[in-house]
Amino acid sequence: MEDHDRDIQITTSGYLKVKRGAQLKQQFCPFSYVGSSEAMIPCGDWCPLFGEPFCTSGNEVRIDLCHGHTIWCPKDKFQDLRNKED
Ligand code: SF4
Question: How far is the centre of ligand 1, averaged over its atoms, from the C-alpha of 41 (Å)?
Fold first, then answer.
């Protein structure tokens, strides 16, 4: 089941954050795990498999990620802070 009702943010530096519980949390690339979660690389627009967000014909924003995975959220729960002042 896909969750279409969560907050998603792309930070000023292009990192992906998704609301988990009450907090927006940095998402990390599961393919960067090498035995320690502290060494994991954040997921973000630096990755060639990270799609640019686009608005659907409905009221949602869609981001295509690696391995055919897609995340969605309502437009009013999406923030793209890139190209804005820190
Ligand atoms: S899009 Fe996929 S491969 Fe790229 S950083 Fe995010 S989780 Fe990793």
Answer: 9
The residue whose CA is least distant from atom 2 of ligand 1 is: 66
- Expressed in angstroms and rounded, the spacing between residue 49 Cα and the centre of ligand 1 is 6
CA distances from 31 to 2, 6, 42, 66, 76 (A): 21, 23, 10, 10, 30
What's the rounded Cα separation, in Å, for the pair 74 and 29?
Answer: 23
Domain boundaries, the chain: 8-80
Q: Running along the chain, 86 residues long, what does each successive block of 10 average in pLDDT? A: 78 96 95 88 97 93 96 95 76
- Distance from residue 10's CA to the centre of ligand 1 (Å): 14
Note the residue count of the chain.
86
pTM higher than 0.70, yes or no?
yes
Residues forming beta bridges with residue 38, ordered by sequence position: none
What is the Cα–Cα distance from 47 to 67, expressed in whole angstroms?
Answer: 13
